[in-house]
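Office hours follow-up: a student asked to see two folded examples consecutively, so here they are.
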Amino acid sequence: MVGPDVAVGHVRFPVESLGAAARYAASFAAGPA
C-alpha cells in the first residue's frame, strides 16, 4: 500500500474505501473483459 490514503488526482481515498474500490475494480475488469 502507498500509505494511510491514496491520492488519485485531487481525490483522496481513505483506507476504509480501498476494499470497496478493489471489489469495484475487480467487477469492472471481469465484466467487459
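And the second, which I mentioned at the end of office hours:
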Amino acid sequence: MRIERMLFRNALPGVFSFGLMLPLASVTWANEDIDVAVDIDEQNIEVIRVTDTTPPIPKTDASAFSTEIDLERYAGEQKRLEDLLGQALGVQIRRFGGAGSLAEVSIRGSTSTQVVVLLDGVKMNSGRGGSVDLSSIPLSQLEAVEVSRGGGAWGAGSGAMGGVAELYVN
C-alpha cells in the first residue's frame, strides 16, 4: 500500500504538467499560416449597396389584434399612460408601488421584456432586452396609443413576442 502511494505521489506532478501542456499543443497547431493568392481585376469590381426596404406599418392597417386608444376621450382627466394601456384587451400592468413608481406592461401573459414599446417608431426597450417604465412617459405629450397583441407585430423587430405598444407624440 505504501509503495502504491509513493508511485502515485511521484506520478501526480507529471500527469498534472502534461494536462497543462496539452492545450498549448493544440493552439500551436492551429496557428499554422496558409498563403492564399487572389488575382483581382480592379477594372471589373462591382459596387454592391445594401439598403433596408422594410416598409413602416401604416396606422390605418390595424388588424383585429390591435386596439387604438382614443386619448381625446380622456382629455381633462387625470389619467396615466399605464391606466389607459391597462384598459386594452389582453394587457396587464404591473406596478411596483404607488402612483409615479415603476409600471411595466405585459400582453397576453408575456413578460414585460417580451413587449416592445415604440415611441414614434423608435424602440424604447433597452438593448439588453429590458422593459420600459411606463410611468416615465407623460400622457400629455402623446397624440395616439395603439396596442398590437401577439407576435404578429413584425415591424417591431425582435423581442415583440407578447406584442407592441406604439406611442405617437404630438
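Two things to take away from it. Residues 95 and 103 are 4 Å apart (CA to CA). The chain is about 20% helix and 20% strand.
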